[in-house]
Specification:
Two copies of one chain form a homodimer. By secondary structure, the first copy, chain A, is an alpha+beta fold. Chain A has two domains: about 150 residues, 2-Layer Sandwich (60s Ribosomal Protein L30, Chain: A); about 170 residues, Phosphoribosyl-aminoimidazole Synthetase, Chain A, domain 2 (Alpha-Beta Complex), CATH 3.90.650.10. Chain A contains eight helices and 14 strands. Chain A has a seven-stranded mixed beta sheet. Chain A has a five-stranded mixed beta sheet with strand order 1-2-7-5-6, with helices on one face. In chain A, helix 2 packs parallel to helix 3 and helix 5 packs antiparallel against helix 8. Chain A starts with 14 loop residues before the first helix and ends in a 13-residue tail after the last strand. At the A-B interface, helix 1, strand 1, strand 2, strand 5 and helix 3 of A face helix 1, strand 1, strand 2, strand 5 and helix 3 of B.
């Protein structure tokens, strides 16, 4: 590493996070299931009872614990359900590991656990195993939650960041930046005329609808643009597939309140976290069915075609701006919004 | 709950932990896979490709991060490998979620990750998916790690706390209290003539040897006596099976240095955490083969028969003391040793 200490930016989901993953985790843990670095590992169980499982984990350290549109518990279920869904898996089971700072009000914990249970029911998954650790005051900030998840991948599904191909269409399931700007404005105590609300939602139903509508073989990549936002996610896909991705600024759906908050705070919605949106890269031939399938679901009502995969500038994300310019958009550098999820 | 705030003892693995699990997690998350409250959830995948998976999670918050015999990374791999093994599963895949306090030296993190990778190789498992979060200084204590794990349970294996039956033999795979007393004496800065060392080790090989030697159907319960120690583990089994468990104080293997440290600090080795030991409850007819199988493995060299399951005092653990008395031993009350794992 170029630095001797771990910095906040190592957890940003952006460039330093990727460096850490490559130089530390990939080097030490290297194995075929880890290497694609997709949202979930895909695991083959061999033999007559063979099948493919998806397995993923995320820790949640969001501050504050409660925010408009959700709380850390809802986030912890949605995030892991969504990571499983992005491999095309049907999410089935979650684990829940709680790290609690001594002194957390029991009522807060109960509200969060109830929220996890509600969200799990909504997503049709079960929390089947768990763990609780309590640390002394000052050794954690109220509550951290880890969830891991297991799902089953149906035959015919082949989804992964490396599968984007020139000609494919790039869709996004709705407006960008709602979650990140909600957390940030809560933390800063800012209020706006039209209040912001996190988009935090389980996307497994939306993915199932999409796969059913266009056939699983025509969906090449699914990814939820969380930490680092859409720009980082599309950079990851461009890098994994060694294809170029071109998007049109005017086609990007952004809520007016989010746009205003971003302008006020000097942030770019392209880099702001989402917790209830997905990027789908599908074959050009199915783009209208795909868009229609997404838009039929309330969670995809504002889905949009935002660009395409190209054979120019492999590994790069290029934005066609509203003014007709084009610029290369890199993944997030530094840490824009710590503890957003 | 009888209290309005979460206390350290809620994370002890003892009585308050069990209250929290029952009154909060079981109530909100209730489902058939969660309810046995064994070390792993056992998940049935139906259909022609049906199989049974084990799934478990633990967070590790041990302080200090490095200790004689291991570090938080080794512990995080062993703990989850062992929880899977205690369901009779063959552990296959782990996730790793890191919550890092800003400012942790990169070299410390690398040493811990390398230790995880070494231990995973030793146990024959792969770390296939992960996540890193970084929180600001003061919001965590250096490093917490969550691991979740997935394994496959072979046909014929039926292991669970509720399966202890009167007449069964109770075995322990080696000396008690080594891990907990190592951490505690490190933290207190105590030194002894014969230095203490954590027993932290992956037990999947030992379990495989045991199952192969006596046949999977004859092993009724496996459990690793971690937080809360042997007394808490045997209480859990007695409670789950509604059988009584009787153990002989004189048969309990305890290293002299651990005994001395416990006496000095006023602790009972029955309640001190182990990280490389298992309790096996097997049919009486296979006890000598079981003991021999354990003792053939270096990790079970000091295995001992310590008691039996009884039809008296159902749900209770009874200790026959060295002086010929008998006393009921309850699960750990309060918090003896915070942040031991």
């Amino acid at each position: 590493m170029t630095t001797d200490l771990i910095l906040l930016a190592h957890g940003s989901g952006g460039k330093l996070s990727h460096d850490l993953v490559q130089r530390l985790f990939v080097r030490h843990f290297s194995n075929p299931a880890l290497l694609p670095l997709d949202d979930s590992a895909v695991l083959e169980i061999a033999g007559p009872a063979g099948m493919r499982l998806a397995f993923t984990t995320d820790s949640y350290v969001v501050s504050p614990l409660f925010f408009p549109g959700g709380d850390i518990g809802k986030l912890a279920v949605c995030g892991t359900v969504n990571d499983l869904s992005m491999s095309g898996a049907r999410p089935l089971w979650l684990s829940a590991g709680f790290i609690i700072e001594e002194g957390l009000p029991f009522a807060d914990l109960e509200q969060i656990v109830a929220s996890m249970a509600d969200t799990a029911r909504q997503a049709g998954v079960q929390v089947v195993t768990g763990d609780t650790k309590v640390v002394d005051r000052g050794s954690a900030d109220r509550l951290f939650i880890n969830t891991a998840g297991v799902g089953v991948i149906a035959p015919g599904v082949q989804i992964g960041g490396q599968r984007a191909r020139p000609g494919d269409a790039v869709l996004v399931s709705g407006t960008l930046g709602d979650h990140g700007m909600t957390i940030l404005t809560q933390r800063e105590g800012l209020t706006f005329d039209s209040p912001l609300q996190s988009d935090c939602a389980p996307l497994n139903g939306l993915v199932a609808s999409l796969l059913a509508a266009v056939g699983p073989g025509h969906v090449h990549v699914l990814r939820d643009p969380t930490r680092g936002g859409l720009a980082t996610t599309l950079n990851e896909i461009a890098s994994a597939s060694q294809a170029g991705i071109e998007i049109d600024e005017t086609s990007l759906p952004v809520r007016e309140a989010v746009r205003a908050a971003c302008e006020l705070l000097g942030l770019d919605p392209l880099y702001v976290a989402n917790e209830g949106k997905l990027v789908a890269i599908v074959e050009q031939s199915v783009v209208s069915q795909a868009l229609a399938a997404l838009q039929r679901d309330p969670l995809g009502a504002e889905a949009a075609l935002i660009g395409h995969v190209s054979d120019r500038h492999p590994g790069r994300l290029v934005l066609h701006t509203a003014l007709g310019a084009r610029r290369v958009v890199d993944m997030l550098a530094g840490e824009q919004l710590p503890r957003i999820c």
